[in-house]
Amino acid sequence: MTVLSIEGLDARHGLLQAVRDVSFEVAEGETIALVGANGAGKTTLLRTIAGAHGPAAGRVVFDGSDVTRLRAYQRVRAGIALVPEGRRLFPELTVEENLLVAGAHAGPGPWSVSRVVEAFPLLEPLRKRRAASLSGGEQQATAIGRALMTNPRLLLVDEVSLGLAPVAVDAVYRSLATLIESGATIVLVEQDLARGMAVADRVICMLEGRIVLAGAADELTREEVTAAYFGLRSGQEAGA
Amino acid sequence: MSWANAVDKGILLGGFYALLACGLSLMFGVMRIINLAHGDLAVLGAFLVWTVVDHTDVSPFLAMVPVLGLMYGVGYGLQRGLLERSLRAGVLVPLLTTFGLAIVIQNLLLEIFSPDVRSLGGRAGAVTTASWRITGDLAISELGVLILAVAIVVLGGLHLFLAHVPAGRAMRATAQDVDTAELVGIDSRAVYARAAGIAVAVAALAGAFLAIRASFDPSSGPTQLIFAFEAVVIGGFGSLWGTLVGGMVLGVSQTIGAEIDPQYSVLAGHLVFLSVLAVRGRGILGAREAIA
Amino acid sequence: MTDRPVVQRWTGLSRGSTGGAVVLLAALAFVPIVLSANSTQKLTSLFVLVILAAMWNALAGYGGLVSVGQQAYIGLGAYGTIYLANHNVAPYPALLLATVFAGAVGLPVSYLVLRMRGGQFAIATWVVAEVFAIMVSLDKSLGAGTGTSLIELNRYTPDERRAYTYWLALGAMTFLLALLFVLLRSRLGASLQAIRDDEEAAASVGVRVMAGKRILYVVAALGCGAAGAITLSNTLFIQPGSIFGIQWTAYMIFMVLVGGLGTFEGPILGAIILFLVQDWFADRGVWYLVGLGLTAILFALLLPRGLWGALEERFSLRLLPVGYRVRGLPSRARAAEGDA
Fold first, then answer.
1. C-beta of residue A156 within 8 angstroms of C-beta of residue A60
2. Helix or strand or coil: residue A35?
């Protein structure tokens, strides 16, 4: 069944049109890799789905209901969770407090502080540490755990590996793999094409606010995706 | 000249200033709003307590209870109705709307209650004038100690609330990053409204104690605002316990100034304030953006 | 379509209105001769309001500095005059010197207050005003708390006094508005705009942020000093409580909010509106002030750009050419500009 349906979404970022007429669907249990160059509109798209950003036009339909008019916190309580770009942990709160704060209004579900720590064992010794003092990888684990605390039906992860050491990225993807196996519905933004395509069921590529390529991960070649990524489509001029 | 007495009076006065400043500090810490109507809201609280006492003849301490509840509602409504919009309109706007609000409150109070100076000290019982005599020179006012105790209880209560209660944690999270708070399911508008409610209720509490320990009239607001502000800034913007430190530094400055010459009391406070700003712009305990 | 884009400062409209303004100012010089004593005195207060509005707008609208303590300089201008007159300086020269004195005091004070921003800056300015007020009220030679007058003005007849005060006010207003106009058209104006938009970015491209703010602060001190001195001369009796009072800030905020923050013409419009409101409603006592406060709130929420700001936006109206316009952009560029 379709968990998320985006219809004709337009979003501005200041004076810039960041998302242009974007439509796609996400089925339950799917993992979608959203790829594209910087400025392609991926972050704005995710934020608009999560409700942190208001769309100029179009609809966001979640689990059959139109949530376009709902504020972000209402969407979270309905089951959409976003792990923001840059992690955005609450700096002066401890890891545990970051988790608790998100869990306070969670719907029913399996996630709790102890389950999160189980899923990300590196967090066990860090529970009482101020979030601002964590390393990038530790922050990413906390941020994903924090989103999970809300017991989401749909998990949006913006820039999974940005700013992380390869070792940390490996750890994050291991946890993501576990999540995916358990049937979670995930949309993740990933700069590293290989990783993204490896873990996803489908790939959506954006360029200058539009979707320029979409398809099953195992049917698309890296060359096709790369070409779409940079806007080099055969028979068309770049940037037109 | 009794310097010990002056310092002791100053410390107790500091307790009052801390109570007065607490709400201002909270609103700034959580919402980054400088509420220029804060002093007038405290005075409004004083007038409400006065009215209850006048009509029902109960002790001012008892009268405070319903007034606190009412003022919590006033703060909540103010935030949702007025300040929320002001925040969205721009950085300067809350300063301007709260300034306009201050003028409105002051003049409405003037219209309803007349410019007469009033006090509830007489109605509050023996505690107003009682003191413990320590030595020949040194006497400690019971009311002063009571107010300091209330201030510590309020600050301590707030600290515990922010540290251990889910709604308090949500408040800290929202204070640090309102955008992300929404993304983890926190209704930031409700959090802000609660903070404003608490801030205004505590302001009213301070106003009630102002009425008991001294006197008040519709135009007392700006003076209270300046003192509250000085306490917050001296102690350090955004630090709750800093408000207590700042209040005491201000109180002691004023009482020592008064020992030199009663006319210099307020001036001494101002000069200490300006010196602290000149030397350490962030205040004594100030530094971090977030509260607690 | 192939015109090269042209950057222009003066349009036909702004040429016309600047010319018109000059003619108006020249005509105003004849008021004491042509109109009644009452009108002369009223217009003098109007000019004072215009000066105050322009100064507060310069600070807040162009500099991003919300000061709630400009009354410090209003009081200094007035009491400075008293002080000089007590020391045998003739009244009108004393007024001028006191104005300069107020501006001069602004310089060291700026080193203290400009270290802060936002609400801290606002409260610091207020405390500075309170300190001046207290210091004056402790001084017996200045009349202490009960107030004082510029009795030296008695050497003139009331008509002469009103006329001289009027011309002084007209001259001060013209000079200060012209000074602001020149400053804002200069590099300072562009720097201030940059500072207002993003201070760090401005500093990173070499804009001298502190210098720009300091100039504004000192000019505002000068202007408010003039306003205070003229008010003394216009109303004869002053007290520390009122001449250093926070209500001056209330008026300034009202005028600038209603007229239009950050526009050049807005404060002038706001001053005219406040003047009219004061004239019509001042005898309503408390309700007049409540009305002012409510209006300020409403404007802040609903019409934050003020009346002039709203007009400017709707009709692209600029009477006085403080900004820049680009004419003659090729149409394709215009379309792309709208899109990007």
1. no
2. strand
CATH code for the part of the protein at C28-283: 1.10.3470
DSSP reduced 3-state for A5:
strand
Each domain of chain C, given as residue ranges in start order, spans 28-283
Distance set, CA B135 to CA B89, B127, C257 (Å): 58, 20, 58
CA gyration radius, chain C: 21
Going along chain A from its start, the domains and CATH numbers come out as: 2-230 (3.40.50.300)
The answer on pLDDT for B32 being more than 70 is: yes
The greatest distance separating any two alpha carbons of chain B, rounded to the nearest whole angstrom, comes to 62
3-state secondary structure of C65: coil
Q: What is the pLDDT of residue C317?
A: 62
The pairing of beta strand A154-157 with beta strand A57-62 = unpaired
Q: Which residue of C has its CA nearest to A13?
A: C340
Chain centre distance of CA B247 = 10
pTM for this predicted structure = 0.86
Q: What is the pLDDT confidence band of residue C175, given thresholds at 50, 70 and 90?
A: very high
Taking CA atoms, B62 is separated from B123, B157, C170, in Å, by 11, 20, 59
Q: Do A82 and B183 touch (CB under 8 A)?
A: yes
Residues of B numbered 110-129 whose beta carbons fall under 8 angstroms of chain C's beta carbons: which are they?
Answer: 110-111
Among A187-191, B13-17, C45-49, which stretch is predicted with the lowest mean pLDDT?
A: A187-191
CA distances (Å), C198 to each of A129, B100, C164, C193, C205, in order? 34, 27, 44, 9, 11
Phi first, then psi: give them for residue A17, nearest 5 degrees: -85, 105
The DSSP annotation for C175-230 comes to: HHHHHHHHHHHSHHHHHHHHHHH-HHHHHHTT--HHHHHHHHHHHHHHHHHHHHHH
Alpha carbon distance A68, C120 (integer Å): 40
The label of the residue with tokens 């009509």 reads B55
Q: Is the pLDDT of residue C146 over 90?
A: no
C197 at interface of A, judged by CB pairs closer than 8 A: no
Q: Is C205 on the interface with A (CB under 8 A)?
A: no
